[in-house]
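Worked Example 4.2. Consider the chain below.
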Amino acid sequence: MAAMAAALRAWAAAGARQDAAWREALARCAPPLGSLAGLAAQMRAAKRLPWGSSPLGAFRDLPERLWRKQRGAAEALLEQLGGRRAELRAVRDAVGTAGAAVLRLYEERAAELGLEVVLRRGPRCPSLADALEGLQDVERYYRHLYLEIKLFLLHIRCDSLADMETLPQSWERILERYKGDVVQDALLKVSLFVDNQRELCSSAGS
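Applying the procedure from the previous section yields the following structure tokens:
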């Protein structure tokens, strides 16, 4: 059990760092999405301008030049979002790899530990099974949210200005669906389990 507790302690420490990186990457998605929405509004307004009947009508290539400039700005913002997506993917992959290593260790030790020990809970302490379930919950949370974010970002199109204008609202709806404290709940489970194992080892040694 000591090996499992050590593996879970390491997972929790890394998991807290990865969660902070995940939250930061999510927060950094909002500004470029807001900028894209504002840019889409400007592009729609430019399309409605009566260029030919205005003093600007003498500059026949002005609408096209303005459109190219706005399109370039939109592509730069999409490139920023691509960077954020790469950061989220890195967290998803790191969490998946770390969780798989802990579960692999459990599979190696399962027969030695026995089902009774794995399922044993204390008055204020989750069981090893509870802690391992938390790991799987976290991996599933990152995997599902990352997939939804990936599809959302890949579907942004500069030729769909009405959709671009609603990007911030669509983004908030995604985050709202995943606003539960899955990661923090799992970290708490693991922390309680690890602390309990430490106390048991101290009691046995005294």
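The CA atoms of residues 85 and 150 lie 7 Å apart. Residues 62-113 form the longest helix (52 residues). Compare this with Example 4.1 before moving on.
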